[in-house]
Amino acid sequence: MDKFKSGFVSIIGRTNVGKSTLINSLVGEKVAITTDKRQTTRTAIRAIVNRENSQIIFVDTPGIHKPKTKLGETMNETAWTFLENVDIVLFIVEATSNKIGKGDKLILEKIKEKNPKTILLINKIDLIKKEELFSLIKMYSEEYKFQEIIPISALKNENTETILEEIEKNLPEGPAYYDIDEYTDQTARQLMEEAIREKALKLLDQEVPHGILVEVEKMQLRKTTKGKDIYDVEATIYVLRKSHKGIVIGKDGAMLKKIGMYARQDMERTLDTKINLKLWVKVKENWQDNESLLKKFKSE
Asked: How far is CA 127 from CA 122, 151, 156, in A?
């Protein structure tokens, strides 16, 4: 019988490269929010894949970008932290770029410096021709001794099993760190905050979404009169400016209702429990540079 293996695998890449889509695809559950907006992931999110002979703990990190606030700096620090103290790094790049851009080059330099076991994933292969893919593989293989280079399409679930097999091959022997039925270390409260933020990101335009902070103040489980479970949730959406507050609320509260409705439906599916959600919007200027608030985004 094969010995049991386990370990931590971080996913690193530029912002908006498809890391969160990939992690959801690998886990088979929604653990990371996904939008087409940049810098969607703000913290390190752990997701667990239990296989017959292994347990893989993925760490989805914020996308590497040029920071403009302390929040941005904290997000980058979190991503760099998980180049070390993990068993394997998954470095994800886009197939649509025929050269190594500034952001990817910066990540490559850090990988060379730390020298972790790294698997390169070339994402969005459905958007290019085979000849272009071959030249990309050649170009990257000359840069670093990757354990493997795997072309993938995170959106279409292409080659996800190959990724898991390659990771398992490179993991050390070890125990299961989490129960077999767990797929994330996030609490219900954190999942709720992220669900609300995701809907706001998807529904709102321009710069407003990036200035949003969601905090759940109350999350209480109770029984309905019919004896069924229901969560009472109260959450506040913080924005950077007074003008943003009006945009988030919308005419006659329409936008806020929409954000709340979609977030509630999402979380009811995740928790398999009815939710009674109340949302408020408040202004908290410069929260992105507030050290005490940024503690929640720091890596552990």
From this structure: 11, 12, 12
- The one-letter amino acid code at 108 reads L
Instruction: Characterize the bridge pairing of strands 229-239 and 213-223.
Output: antiparallel
- Residue 37's pLDDT is what? 42
Q: Where are the alpha helices (DSSP H) in the chain?
A: 19-27, 70-81, 102-114, 130-141, 160-170, 188-203, 242-249, 254-271, 291-294
Q: Is the pTM value of this prediction over 0.90? A: no
Q: What does the DSSP 8-state code read for residue 49?
A: E
Q: How confident is the model over 54-80, as pLDDT tens digits?
A: 999 888 776 554 555 555 565 556 655
Strands of the sheet containing 229-239, edge to edge, are 213-223, 229-239, 274-283
Q: Could you tell me where in the chain the CATH 3.30.300.20 domains are found?
A: 188-297
| Residues 6+ away with beta carbon under 8 Å from 252 | none
Residues 135-173: tens digit of each pLDDT: 999 999 999 999 999 999 888 887 888 999 999 999 999
85: its two tokens: 């103290």
**How far apart (Å, rounded) are the C-alpha atoms in residues 239 and 214?**
9
5-170 has which fold? Rossmann fold (3.40.50)
248 touches 280 (CB < 8 A)? no
SS3 at position 246: helix
What's the CATH fold of domain 188-297?
A: GMP Synthetase; Chain A, domain 3 (3.30.300)
For 111-128, the pLDDT digits (tens) are 999 898 999 999 989 888
Residue (of 43, 47, 49, 21) closest to 34 by Cα position? 21
